[in-house]
């Protein structure tokens, strides 16, 4: 594949405005631009659609209400009534991931969540929040989370390190899952796009049909990964609040 | 891979933090209260409407029982009225029947009397006719006058003998 | 050029993980279908879990893909 036509070229970070604050590079990049677009889109979507405050919701308003109730139910089912306090956090995480994924599906746009550092940042935010919630709620008892109950002492020597490792791997698996899904989906679309060009007008129809189907799948994945990210955050939060295995 | 270019990490992390904080504040302060306000308003409205509907249905239930009670009362009133009328009619009928029977009995008695009278008269007439006839026959046969007293005695004796 | 060839081979080997993912995905949907045929009333309730399991299993395949990418491009 020729240079500049790599399927990974779409993930290139371009510095739009060079900035440097106290020795740290804080340049405004295309990634930053799309983050701003995403939060603007979310805020506009939720506020404009609810502007009418209609008793009988229209199409946009019922979409906004649906997303609200979707996360509210998820939190209620997985965490219980104590989770109500963390609703804005989980809701923001879900909407951010969902809109990053969906806006990334627009051709020539940039998928913020296809960068491991962004997804890792999000996952680390979730991880730190959840751990702090656990520590503030239970204090030292939070450490009992790493000790499985009803297990012989001999096995504990083996199980406690495994529990600790599995706990600290959570942000990594959470971030890599989202990143890998976005990376793979967009790369696959680009690879098949290259096939369409390579086979030109007499043979390109087959990969073109494939791309059409894949695009549908990618929309499903975009939604599903946001759902998975949110529901795993809920499960982690539940662990921190209830501490039981 | 552009994702592993470490020089790109700090700006992305910084902007992620900035945008996520803005998003969180926007959600927590603006969007979520607005949506939950609408949803709660709707819930309240639905609960209120349900209460109203329950109240109305109770009212209609009450009206129905009242109506049924009134209906029942009217029915029993009509029943007693009909029964009273029936009894009165029966009494009247009985009275007129008795009257009729008495009248009929009177009529029968009068008829019997008149029949007995007629019979008596007829019998008396027969006696006198028989006496006349016998007198005439005797005078014709023996040309002798028979006194009325004798004649009557003879007829009586004859009638007695026959009877 | 030998390192380049070894990278190609390694990236190819990384995709062996797809065998397990294929088994897993088949198992998820097979179990879902047989379960929902036994008790169709319960099928909508578990569909969310099916999607979650699908996403989690698919992520394993993508981990392998990321490894392959790392070998090829990093």
TrEMBL record, chain A:
It comes from the Bacteria. This is ATP synthase subunit a. The chain crosses the membrane at residues 32-50, 86-110, 116-136, 143-169, 189-212, 219-238. Its main location: membrane. Key component of the proton channel; it plays a direct role in the translocation of protons across the membrane. It is a multi-pass membrane protein. Keywords: ATP synthesis, Cell membrane, CF(0), Hydrogen ion transport, Ion transport, Membrane, Transmembrane, Transmembrane helix, Transport. It is found in: Cell membrane; Membrane. Pfam families: ATP-synt_A. SUPFAM superfamilies: F1F0 ATP synthase subunit A. Belongs to the ATPase A chain family.
From TrEMBL, chain B:
Gene3D superfamilies: 6.10.250.1580. SUPFAM superfamilies: Apolipoprotein A-I. The keyword NAD does not apply. It is found in: Cell membrane; Endomembrane system. It is a single-pass membrane protein. F-type ATPases have 2 components, F(1) - the catalytic core - and F(0) - the membrane proton channel. F(1) has five subunits: alpha(3), beta(3), gamma(1), delta(1), epsilon(1). F(0) has three main subunits: a(1), b(2) and c(10-14). The alpha and beta chains form an alternating ring which encloses part of the gamma chain. F(1) is attached to F(0) by a central stalk formed by the gamma and epsilon chains, while a peripheral stalk is formed by the delta and b chains. The lineage of its organism: Bacteria, Pseudomonadati, Pseudomonadota, Alphaproteobacteria, Sneathiellales. Its main location: membrane. This is ATP synthase subunit b. Residues 46-77 form a coiled coil. The keyword Nucleus does not apply. Belongs to the ATPase B chain family. Pfam families: ATP-synt_B. The chain crosses the membrane at residues 12-32. It comes from Sneathiella chinensis. Keywords: ATP synthesis, Cell membrane, CF(0), Coiled coil, Hydrogen ion transport, Ion transport, Membrane, Transmembrane, Transmembrane helix, Transport. HAMAP family: ATP_synth_b_bprime. F(1)F(0) ATP synthase produces ATP from ADP in the presence of a proton or sodium gradient. F-type ATPases consist of two structural domains, F(1) containing the extramembraneous catalytic core and F(0) containing the membrane proton channel, linked together by a central stalk and a peripheral stalk. During catalysis, ATP synthesis in the catalytic domain of F(1) is coupled via a rotary mechanism of the central stalk subunits to proton translocation.
TrEMBL record, chain C:
Residues 1-74 form the Major facilitator superfamily (MFS) profile domain. The keyword Coiled coil does not apply. Keywords: ATP synthesis, Cell membrane, CF(0), Hydrogen ion transport, Ion transport, Lipid-binding, Membrane, Transmembrane, Transmembrane helix, Transport. CDD domains: ATP-synt_Fo_c_ATP5G3 (cd18182). It comes from the Bacteria. The chain crosses the membrane at residues 12-34, 46-73. It is a multi-pass membrane protein. Its main location: membrane. Gene3D superfamilies: F1F0 ATP synthase subunit C. It holds the Pfam family ATP-synt_C. The record marks 58 as: Reversibly protonated during proton transport. It is found in: Cell membrane; Membrane. Belongs to the ATPase C chain family. NCBIfam families: PRK07558.1. F(1)F(0) ATP synthase produces ATP from ADP in the presence of a proton or sodium gradient. F-type ATPases consist of two structural domains, F(1) containing the extramembraneous catalytic core and F(0) containing the membrane proton channel, linked together by a central stalk and a peripheral stalk. During catalysis, ATP synthesis in the catalytic domain of F(1) is coupled via a rotary mechanism of the central stalk subunits to proton translocation. Key component of the F(0) channel; it plays a direct role in translocation across the membrane. A homomeric c-ring of between 10-14 subunits forms the central stalk rotor element with the F(1) delta and epsilon subunits. This is ATP synthase subunit c. The gene is atpE.
């Amino acid at each position: 594949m020729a240079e500049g036509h790599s399927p990974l070229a779409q993930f290139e970070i371009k510095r739009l405005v060079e900035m440097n604050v106290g020795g740290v590079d804080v340049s405004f990049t295309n990634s930053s631009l799309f983050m701003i677009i995403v939060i603007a889109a979310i805020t506009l979507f939720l506020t404009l659609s609810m502007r009418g405050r209609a008793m009988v919701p229209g199409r946009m308003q019922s979409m906004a209400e649906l997303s609200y109730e979707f996360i509210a139910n998820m939190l209620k089912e997985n965490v219980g009534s104590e989770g109500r306090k963390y609703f804005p956090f989980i809701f923001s995480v879900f909407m951010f991931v969902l809109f990053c994924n969906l806006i990334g599906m627009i051709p020539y746009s940039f998928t913020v969540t296809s960068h491991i550092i962004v997804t890792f940042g999000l996952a680390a935010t979730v991880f730190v929040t959840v751990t702090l919630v656990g520590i503030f709620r239970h204090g030292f008892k939070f450490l009992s989370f790493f000790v499985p109950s009803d297990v012989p002492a001999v096995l504990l020597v083996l199980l406690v390190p495994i529990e600790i490792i599995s706990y600290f791997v959570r942000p990594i698996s959470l971030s890599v899952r989202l990143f890998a899904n976005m990376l793979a989906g967009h790369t696959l679309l680009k690879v098949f796009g290259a096939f369409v060009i390579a086979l030109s007008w007499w043979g390109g129809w087959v990969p073109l049909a494939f791309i059409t189907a894949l695009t549908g799948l990618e929309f499903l994945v975009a939604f599903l990964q946001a759902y998975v990210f949110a529901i795993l955050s809920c499960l982690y939060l539940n662990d921190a609040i209830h501490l039981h295995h | 891979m552009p994702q592993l270019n470490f020089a790109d990490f700090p700006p992305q992390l910084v902007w992620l933090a900035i945008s996520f904080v803005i998003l969180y504040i926007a959600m927590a302060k603006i969007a979520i209260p607005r949506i939950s306000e609408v949803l709660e308003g709707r819930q309240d409205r639905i609960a209120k409407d349900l209460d109203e509907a329950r109240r109305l249905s109770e009212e209609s239930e009450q009206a129905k029982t009242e109506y049924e009670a009134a209906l029942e009362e009217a029915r029993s009133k009509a029943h007693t009225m009909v029964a009273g009328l029936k009894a009165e009619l029966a009494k009247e009928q009985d009275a007129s029947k008795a009257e009729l029977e008495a009248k009929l009995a009177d009529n029968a008695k009068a008829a019997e009397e008149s029949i007995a009278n007629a019979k008596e008269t007829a019998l008396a007439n027969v006696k006198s006719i028989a006496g006349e006839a016998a007198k005439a026959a005797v005078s014709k046969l023996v040309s002798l006058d028979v006194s009325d007293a004798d004649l009557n005695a003879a007829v009586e004796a004859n009638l007695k003998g026959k009877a | 050029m030998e390192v380049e060839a070894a990278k190609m081979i390694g990236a190819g080997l990384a995709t062996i993980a797809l065998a397990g993912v294929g088994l897993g995905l088949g198992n998820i949907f097979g179990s879902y279908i047989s379960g929902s045929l036994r008790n169709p009333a319960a099928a909508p309730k578990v569909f969310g879990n099916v999607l979650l399991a699908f996403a989690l299993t698919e992520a394993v395949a993508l981990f392998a893909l990321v490894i392959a990418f790392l070998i090829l491009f990093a």
